Fold these 2 entries.
Entry 1:
Amino acid sequence: MVAKDAAKVITLSEFKRRNATGECLIVFDGSAYNLTSFRKKHPGGPLVIEHLKGKNATDVMIAYHPDDVIQKRLPYFLVGKVVDDGVDSGIESSDPDEAAVPQQTTPNAPLSSVEKAGGAVGYGALVSNSEVSKDYRRLHQQLKDLGFFETDYSNYMREVIKYLICLTIIVYTGIFAPRHILSYVVCAATTAFMWQQMAFVGHDIGHNAVFHNAKLDYAVGTAFGNPLLGISIGWWKSNHNIHHVVTNSPEHDPDIQHLPFFAVSSRFLTKLYSSYYGVTWDFPNDHFAKLLVSMQHNLYYPILCFARFFLYLQSVKYLLSPWCPYRLWEVGTMICFASWQIFLVSHFHSWTGIAIYVFMSHALTMILHLQITLSHFSMPTQDPPENEDWATKALRTSLDVECPEWLDWFHGGLQFQVEHHLFPRIARHKLRQVRPYVADFAARHGLSLNSQSFYYGNVLLYRNFKEIADQVGFAWGRIGGEKVNVAKKLQ
Ligand code: HEM
């Protein structure tokens, strides 16, 4: 833990007052740190810090940073130990009605997108750490001591060999094999398989879990991942880290924000502002979204077949945005992707062949999108109970997918989603071994470790989507026979 200057203190009311007037203070292990000027320089981006503004960030900090960040860099921002002066004893209200109307306290403190969306999340009480939090940190240290945070590079060597075999098949069937429909089908299926398998390694590297060095992981990820996958690792990181910090929050988590196609939570059926996209969705007045969402349980699988195209679009939007730090580099790597794809299909000599390849390779990758969404789409999206711990939140909002060990290659380690959310810096190939420790942890605190088979996970997802679709159908007058205001209906 960080060595603290015992002389420095800040009262709870002062801590809250400073946050309300535009500064950005967080709590780590009972002490306040001022990140006002640092947040813009933060390697993980400013938004993740905004999400913890005025809150207890202890466990999130531990989950995401190497020891030296916490031991050597964090003390630089120390304000002092937080003491409860009795003026206000807890964190700000998590009452959604109250949170929905954030107060702009001074004209010099413009509301951040997080505040506009209803305020930060935060985990655990401010001045003291709960038993769950203490035990989480003990477990974190224990897993570190047992070597689970260390990378087994032989695992990645096997992955590289797998990709080289895939590339050989793609080049042979796409360029040299007889121009036959079977060649195109094999070429497309191998491309889809390679994309699915590479995405798992991309996931590790995006979490800095391969080299445990943010710059090196990013460099290797963008040098190989972008050209072969066509998805910007920079975009993925910016999106995915937010997803981890605010999992399943309708206002904040971009991974569950899919209007006009899907509404993962009935909260999307009202007017909702997204702190990530900075836009407001006015569902009650969006007839296109109503149409799609009212059929979402049936459209889900067909739409997933085209999901990859949306990821290209998101990547391009990110590359054109002002917050892409290495634009030229990332654009160059993405051009490499477009070039090899065009080069490959230019050898097909048939539009049918090209259509088969493009459609099949993209549609088959829907399995990956399904694997990714399954672990959260059927889990709770309500506001967390007040002072909920980081670990409790991870267990509440994530679902493990049961599978035998020999099928681990297929699920790519992402089937251990609960373990991954608790320890995002542990590489996927170690998560099966981590699971028993998490099961014990959950049992010690009376928490559930949610887990379902792949089939039943799909059933749960379908039911959740259908329930929400039916609400739209009813509100739209299809089921009830009369037109009802959807926003009112859901209150
Ligand atoms: C609310 C507080 C904070 C949150 C939620 C947070 C979150 C994150 C996240 C999600 C990442 C991963 C970024 C990536 O994928 O590359 C990250 C990385 C990083 N953060 Fe923070 N952070 C916080 C505060 C801080 C502070 C106070 C410091 C400095 C003292 C800091 C320094 C860093 C560094 C150096 C990295 C790169 C780590 C690496 O090499 O793997 N962060 N942070």
Note: The first helix runs from residue 12 to 20.
Entry 2:
Amino acid sequence: MRKPIIAGNWKMNKTIKEAVELVKDIKSGDRDDNVEAVLCVPFTNLMEVKREIEGTNIKLGAQNMHWEDSGAFTGEISPLMLKEIGIDYVIIGHSERRQYFNETDETVNKKVKTALKYDINPIVCVGETLEERESGKEKEVVKAQVLKALEDIEEKDIESIVIAYEPIWAIGTGKTASNKDANDIISFIRETIGNKYSKDISEKIRIQYGGSVKPANISELMDESDIDGALVGGASLKSEDFLKLINF
Ligand SMILES: O=C[C@H](O)COP(=O)(O)O
């Protein structure tokens, strides 16, 4: 049985003061213990948010990470720095990083390997553009992204990974993939992992959907057979909405 995982990706939002207020509100709300709630916050908020969630079952995530431990990489954050703070998750290969910061399948693969080396659970994002979907290439694109992200990764590490399927055309646009379409691609990702490794591990890995998830559509998405959770942008910035999502 896969434990549902709802992760809020705050993106480039919230000052430290705003972050603390939001976490205090989330902390004080009712939360379903059977759902894993993760807050993926800007680097500058990690330490304060870590302090705030101490003693709760809320998990902490970063939104990116370099693959090297240290060195001349101005502006980058290393896995050692994140490990010291005590993060549980790191988002890798979000489409915004691929689109605006030249993240490639190769760098995604390096970062996934580094995260695993440091026992940080990677949330690996994949997803097709509108153009790719309209030309019927979504499965081909997503399969290539998944296989490259998992290159040279052993089966024993697969369960530590979460995959987030986020069709780019559904991110921040208010357009959600239909439940059926999202479930279809997610079960295809599961099948791809099953073919590369084993059916057993493909049944264990958690795969989220992301793209305009909100309180109004979360339960129907979670009713689908293969969708194990959501990676949520906009709706994770309001405590009321995020609490509704984790109590779907
Ligand atoms: O990481 C989250 C996704 O990019 C979805 O963002 P959104 O919920 O604002 O569409």
Note: The radius of gyration is 17 Å.
